[in-house]
Design a protein that fits this description.
347 residues, alpha/beta, Dimethylsulfoxide Reductase, domain 2, 13 helices
């Protein structure tokens, strides 16, 4: 018998609704949630493929490349935490609001470092543009190939273009975003210098990539000067919510912290493809993940946790709206809060 349940897509920070289809307890597919106000019955390829994380889920904990039970892995984690001085906990937008609060409380209770990397976007305080603001904008500066990587935001940009908006972008030639742009520039600095003065209070700067803190400062400076809005679109579903709880770090700041770290606990993320760093220099890496990834493969200890399909909680989408979600399939796996509680009980 087929069962359909509503939840949120975890593929990026847009916050689309998604329907998950299961058959006798096994996930078999997805289709768009037609009444969801963000995506209105549309989902991108990443959203449709998001169930693959459940299909490839880990079945057991791993210590030194050997399968072990959870308690053995917890004992090994605690032994490392007790014997080393420089401990760093890493959370990200892949964690729910509730998970990040649990990680932060764990760090504060034990005087551990806590790190958050969110696409090199730091210090975004206050109100950001809504998706309706994007759709109704008179002028848009788009940084990154937003139409390709975040197509449900891209849909709003196309609507704005159809309504007469001017679109200026920094995006690769031939990209999807380039195809709807009036002007294409060679750098973030170039697009801001060339077209920043054209913006007004009905304009929005939409971006999903920044190369440096200087670029980000320039975006904020232009926005303030022209009284326009900004919309950072993160690659992970709850990065906006995470940044409201933990101060995000730049890539340079994060690498500096990693250089001083003896034990690194990574909660539901894959750092190695994102951060150029010699992770072999860290004495012990512990990954809490629902399925195998590059970072778990480089970790001495791996603990399986619930995937987004098995979890419940809340995310904050790119425009700052809190959205709740329920588990769509039953699971015996531990949630992040349950793993932390087990570790804390043994410290």
């Amino acid at each position: 018998m087929l069962e359909i349940k509503h939840t949120l897509c975890p593929s990026c920070s847009v916050g689309c609704g998604i329907n998950v289809v299961s058959h006798e307890g096994d996930v078999v597919g997805t289709y768009p949630y037609k009444r969801h106000p963000v995506n209105e019955g549309k989902n991108c390829l990443n959203g449709r493929n998001s169930v693959e994380i459940y299909e490839n889920k880990l079945e057991s904990a791993i210590v030194s490349n050997s399968d072990v039970d959870i308690d053995k892995a917890i004992d090994e984690i605690c032994s490392n935490l007790k014997s080393k001085d420089n401990i760093t906990l890493f959370c990200s937008g892949n964690n729910s609001v509730e998970d990040i609060e649990a990680i932060k409380n764990f760090a504060e209770k034990n005087n551990y470092n806590i790190a958050l990397y969110a696409d090199n976007i730091v210090g975004i305080d206050g109100e950001v543009a809504s998706y309706d603001d994007v759709e109704k904008a008179s002028k848009l500066i788009v940084i990154g190939d937003v139409l390709y990587t975040n197509p449900l935001i891209g849909r709003r940009i196309i609507h704005a273009k159809d309504n007469g908006a001017d679109v200026y972008s920094f995006t690769p030639e031939g990209s999807v975003t380039a195809n709807v742009s009036d002007e294409i520039c060679d750098s973030i600095d170039d697009v801001l210098n060339s077209f920043g003065d054209n913006l007004d209070e009905s304009s929005v700067i939409v971006f999903n990539t920044v190369n440096s803190s200087e670029d980000l400062d320039k975006i904020k400076e232009i926005s303030d000067k022209r009284n326009s809005k900004i919309l950072p679109v993160f690659s992970k579903c709850n990065s906006k919510g995470a940044c409201d709880i933990v101060n995000a770090q730049s890539k340079e700041e994060f690498v500096e912290l990693l250089n001083a770290t003896d034990v690194l606990l990574v909660f539901n993320d894959d750092l190695i493809p994102e951060i150029d760093f010699d992770f072999a220099s860290i004495s012990t890496i512990v990954s809490f993940v629902p399925c195998e990834n590059s970072t778990s493969n480089a970790s001495q200890i791996v603990v399986p946790i619930k995937s987004w399909l098995e979890n419940e909680g809340s995310f904050v989408n790119a425009m700052g709206e809190t959205q709740t979600f329920d588990a769509v399939i039953e699971s015996d796996a531990l949630g992040v809060d349950e793993v932390i509680e087990k570790i804390q009980d043994k410290l």
